[in-house]
Amino acid sequence: MKLGKFGIWTTHRAIGEEQAGAAAQLVEQLGYSVFWLGGSPRLPSLRPLLEATESLVVATSIVNVWANDPATLAAEYASLERDFPGRFLVGIGIGHPEATSDYSKPLSAMRSFLDGLDGADPPLPRDRRCVAALAPKMLALSAERSLGAIPYFVPSAHTRTARAQLGAGVLLAPEVAFALDDDAERARTAARAYARSYLGMSNYAGNLLRSGFTERDIADGGSDRLIETVIPHGSAEEIARAVRGHLDAGADHVAVQAVGEPGIPRRGWKALAHALLG
Predict the structure, then answer these.
(1) What domains can be seen in the chain, in order of their start residue?
(2) How many other CB atoms sit within 10 Å of the CB of residue 56?
(3) Which of 90, 135, 168, 250 has the maximum number of C-beta atoms within 10 A of its C-beta?
(4) In this prediction, what percent of the chain has a pLDDT beyond 90?
């Protein structure tokens, strides 16, 4: 499976599920190699993206372990793999306690879920799944039991630390949100609006503290330093430099997410494709 250097991250909620096929076609035409669908999608809902494209890899970011049964997930994967061989990657995540009432012992829950995938008939192969990992123990589990890690809402400092822990040969594919706007203040406002909910979630806030930020950086919607570091904004060239910073820090692939542009963010996707892919 060729993931390339850059992919697009979005959700059905952002682009409209009825437009998902058209969005996937645009992503492929622009030269991105992976379409990452967030928002805890069910695997059959990704079939239209695969049908609308020729070689684009489609991936989940993420399937939530609390809302899925391993055997069912493995069977859904097998159906897609049979019809679209080599084009589907299952990103799996534990979510966060603020959104899941059943949330407890996340590492044990993830390990048990992966056991279920291994024990399914047929199993969901290790090299066709990856894990949303932020903290060291989950990063270690992602390397041990999957293709690698797909961190979300992280600075390049986390990418560097994660690569040092994972070592070579393990996928590291962070998500990076961006706000394209030549008006710096307007771009920062869009970036801060996107960041607000994540800064209120303990797993993301704790990870930022481990990555060198302070409680003051996280408070009141995020400091300018935090917003500028985690969510690059401004011109396409400025954003591209920040995205490449994750590659320089050890990422194999970066999934970019346009914020502040309603519907299919054609302007943001096109501008960044030009800056990143030429």
Answers:
(1) 6-277 (3.20.20.30)
(2) 22
(3) 90
(4) 94
**DSSP code at position 147:** S
Q: Where are the alpha helices (DSSP H) in 146-262?
A: 156-166, 184-199, 202-210, 215-218, 224-230, 236-248
For residue 193, give both structure tokens: 């609006």
The CB density around residue 243, as the number of other CB atoms within 10 Å, is: 23
**Interatomic CA distance for residues 132 and 224, integer angstroms:** 26
Q: Which residues of 132-169 are buried (b: 16+ CB within 10 A; e: fewer)?
A: bbbeeebbebbbebbbbbbbbbbbbbbbbbbbeebeee
- Summarised one tens digit per residue, pLDDT across range 165-196 is 999 999 999 999 999 999 989 999 999 999 99
pTM above 0.90?
yes
262 SS3 class: coil
- Alpha-carbon distance of 14 to 263, in angstroms, equals 6
